[in-house]
From TrEMBL:
SUPFAM superfamilies: Acyl-CoA N-acyltransferases (Nat)
Protein name according to UniProt: Lysine N-acyltransferase MbtK
Membrane spanning stretches: none
Organism in which the protein naturally occurs: Streptomyces griseofuscus
One Pfam short name: Acetyltransf_8
Pathway: Siderophore biosynthesis; mycobactin biosynthesis
Molecular-function GO terms, alphabetical: N-acyltransferase activity
Length: 177
C-alpha cells in the first residue's frame, strides 16, 4: 500500500458539497456528528471554513479523483481554545475516508500517513493535534501508527475527546519503523 500517492486541493464548497454530503452523512461517518445534515448544511459549513483564516478543508485526490477529506485548523483559534496549552507550530487536523463497498487493505493508513506528511511539508508545523471521540478506537489505532501519543481525555461541547499529539520527529520515527 506504500505505492499510493495522493495530491490535495482546497474544497470547493458548492462544487464538492454533494460528494461531501454523501460521505459525511453515511453511518460510517457517525463520529463527524452530521448524520442528519442536509446538502445546504454541508455547503454552509464548508463555506464557513473556506472564509475562515484559521481553518482549511482539503480533498485528498487519488489519480485526480476525490478519495478523502482533510480539515486543518489553528487550535489557538478553533476547536481546542481553552482546552489545552497550545505551542507555537501546533496545527489541528481531522480526516475522513468515505465508506466503500470495496475496502482496500491499508488504504486508511496510507491516507493518514499522506495527510501527516502533507501537514509537515509546512516548515512552521512542529506538532499535529487531534481530538477524536474517545469511543473511536479505529482512529486511535491509526493515530498511534503514525506517531500520535494520547495525552488525556478532554470534554468538548459536542463530545468526550482523546487529546493526542504527534511531533515531526514522532511521525518520522513511526513511519520509518
Amino acid at each position: 500500500m506504500t505505492d499510493l500517492t495522493f495530491s490535495f486541493r482546497p474544497v470547493d464548497p458548492l462544487r464538492d458539497a454533494e460528494l461531501l454530503h454523501s460521505w459525511i452523512t453515511h453511518p460510517k461517518a457517525a463520529f463527524w456528528m452530521m448524520q442528519d445534515a442536509k446538502l445546504e448544511d454541508i455547503e454552509r459549513a464548508y463555506m464557513e471554513i473556506a472564509a475562515d483564516e484559521h481553518q482549511q478543508a482539503l480533498l485528498g485526490l487519488r489519480d485526480g479523483v476525490p478519495a478523502f477529506l482533510v480539515e486543518r485548523y489553528d487550535p489557538v483559534h478553533r476547536e481546542l481554545v481553552g482546552l489545552y496549552e497550545p505551542r507555537p507550530g501546533d496545527v489541528g487536523m481531522h480526516f475522513l475516508t468515505p465508506a466503500t463497498d470495496t475496502p482496500e487493505h491499508g488504504f486508511t493508513k496510507a491516507v493518514i500517513t499522506a495527510v501527516m506528511a502533507h501537514l509537515f511539508e509546512d516548515p512552521a508545523v512542529e506538532r499535529v493535534v487531534v481530538e477524536p471521540d474517545v469511543r473511536n478506537k479505529a482512529v486511535h489505532a491509526l493515530n498511534a501508527a503514525v506517531g500520535f501519543v494520547a495525552e488525556r481525555e478532554i470534554q468538548k461541547p459536542e463530545k468526550e475527546a482523546l487529546l493526542s499529539f504527534c511531533t515531526r520527529e514522532q511521525f518520522t520515527e513511526a513511519v520509518s519503523a
